[in-house]
Amino acid sequence: MLIGCHVVIAVTDSYGFLLSSRRMDGAPLVSIGLAHAKARTAALLRVPTLELQNAVDAGKTSYLAAVEITPQEGGVPVLYGDTVAGAVGVSGAESIQDAKIAAAGVAALRLR
Fold first, then answer.
1. How far apart are CA 111 and CA 61, in angstroms?
2. For residue range 75-110, what is the model confidence (pLDDT) as tens digits?
3. In terms of Cα–Cα distance, which of 91, 75, 86, 93 is closest to 110?
4. Which domains are seen in the chain, by residue range?
């Protein structure tokens, strides 16, 4: 299904190191770094970045001081059982759309 946006998709290993990144034509250049940052955050914290965004929105602003952590929706960890195998981060659309695209990518991995 097309949603009419141009995004960057980044995939990291379990330590947040970039494995692959793809930028759609027309995706904002700033989204290259943001997609990786979202994936890195999801991998390192082992939770979707929405959880961190919600914590910051609720007043836990100390998370903003953490180095290499991006509290913005759009990063989803890739789980293999109870183990985080990596993460997918998406940037370029509204954050909720980024998260849906990342979750779809993670779900596609489970089908293989």
1. 37
2. 999 999 899 999 999 999 999 999 999 999 999 987
3. 86
4. 8-105 (3.30.450.150)
